Structures are given as C-alpha cells and as structure tokens.
Amino acid sequence: MNPSLSSVNQNLLMTSDFFIVPTVPDFFSIMAIDSLARIMPFWHIWAEKASDLKVLKEATYPFPKVTPLFLGTIIQNYRIKKKKPSANFQEWIDRIQKAVSEELVPSLKEQNMLLPNEVYSSQNMNDYCLTQMSDFNSLIAISQNFQTPVFALTKEQIYQQGIVLEDTLKSSSNFRDDFSTLADKIINLTSNAVCALPVSYQY
Prior knowledge:
Oligomer: single chain
Structural class: mainly alpha
Largest sheet: 3 strands, parallel
C-alpha cells in the first residue's frame, strides 16, 4: 500500500487478515508510527460498524468481518559499518523500536489486533521486528535494469571484476538468505496465529 491514510488504504487494511509495517531509520518513520497508533483504533471501530451494515453485508462484494493482526515491522535501507548498522542509523532503529513498543503495540492491543505473545516469541520477535535489512547498494538498480531478482543476477549482468564482484555476489547471496528467512517467519506466524487465538477470533 502507498504511505497514506486515505480511505482506499483504510478499506484495504481493514479487510486484511494480517499486516506488516515497513520502516526506514529516519524521522518520517517515527511520524508514521505515531500516526498509525492514533488512527488504527478509529479504523477498526469503523470497520466493525461497517461489517454489520445490511447494505454492505448484502453487497456484491460484502465487507468482511475480520480483525487485521499485526505481524511486525521491517527495518530497511540503512548502511552497514563493521557488520552492524552505522551509529546514526542505529540511533533511529532504536527510536523506531521504542515507538513501536510504547505507542503502536499498546494501541493495537486495545483493539485485539496483536497475535498472542507466544506466537511472536516462537519467532524470536519480542521486539516485534520481523527483520532488519540493510541497503544492498547497486544491486537493486541492476536488478531493476535487467528485470531479474537480485539473487538471480549473473556475473555478466553485474558486470564487475575482482574483489568488487566478490563482495557484490556475497551481497546477492545475503539478499536471498534474508528474504528466505523473512518468508519463513511470515509463514510460521500466520500458520500459528489462528491456532493460538481464542475461538471467538478464529475465522
């Protein structure tokens, strides 16, 4: 979804089973988390009322009665220094995680929009972060140019030599590993979610 609080996004999100909040380590993500913490309760209350309206129940595409559940955040597009986020990025990462735990999560909890704690814990997500994915530099641009997944780029497409090529191929392999781990985590969360929820929330 595009980053806005439009009525289209309101409808899309409130008719979803699960949702993920992507972030980057900067001031605007902090603002976005604050906005979500304030607006999500209103959207959920509106959706519950909308799903009970006769005209929407009998519509060609009925408005479903679901409670979207928060899978977690993704923190992306930051620079690595000595195998860790650089100091400036780490400061924003810490602020994002604090905003999520102190503002967004309590707001979602009031609306029953969280998974049970044990489901998050099963994926080592006590901070509600699905993954942290650094900036892959030129790989994204090369991938888009050849319309090829980053992890499927060939040496000829990357068009580099020596240690630069070795580093880029290593980044490509890391990219594959990061996305594979993320996909597995999402599958595990969504698979375990329904079984762990109270009967009244299963659908």
